Amino acid sequence: MVAVLATVFVGAGLLGGAGPAGAGPAACAAGNPLQPTAELFATDNTATITDPEDQRLRDQLAGFELAVGAITVRHIGLPAGSTLVSGVFWSAERQQATYERSRKFHLACVDSAELRRIADQVRTQFQQESVLTFERLAPNSPGVDAVTVTVAGVDVRRFRDGLAADAVARERLVGGSVTEANALILVVDIADMELARRFVTGLGGAWDSASLQYGDREFVSA
């Protein structure tokens, strides 16, 4: 799919010439237009799921992946694949964990404005309260306010139980996403990095500093 869409970009002149302001080559990674410059975490689910055995949590979201890819292309971005994840979020109102099947989308050739527009269309089209975005930035960039980290060895149940048992972690971290290979993906505020490290290592996870990606986090809502 990525190769096909890259061909479309070349045909439109977006990987080799001028495109709309803030899009196309100006927003691509230097020397590699297929390298992701941002992530978008989203789902098409609108139900509240509290049972980890709910069959909706087995959905592969193949159609949703194609739909978000199409939205990205319409906004002059390039889909660079996605990762199927199971989200776990703590509901302060219900005092329990909620679950959702979602995808972490890797987007190339998008800047902050395009990323926000893509997220807002995904939010509107799939009736979501908000969509989480993460724009990759250099660690010393003034726009950095968060990091993503991937922690091996943490499954959905272990993460859910850990949040339920740790009032500080569930208030500050709120939730996270777990891949099919039991790797926990967290998007955390810079100020909460040490808290996140202690929390996941306490769950038996392997904190990997090499996986840290610095950037700007935003919850795009109405």
TrEMBL record:
The keyword Signal applies. It comes from the Bacteria. Residues 1-23 form the signal peptide. This is Uncharacterized protein. The keyword Signal applies. It comes from Nocardia iowensis. Keywords: Signal. The lineage of its organism: Bacteria, Bacillati, Actinomycetota, Actinomycetes, Mycobacteriales.
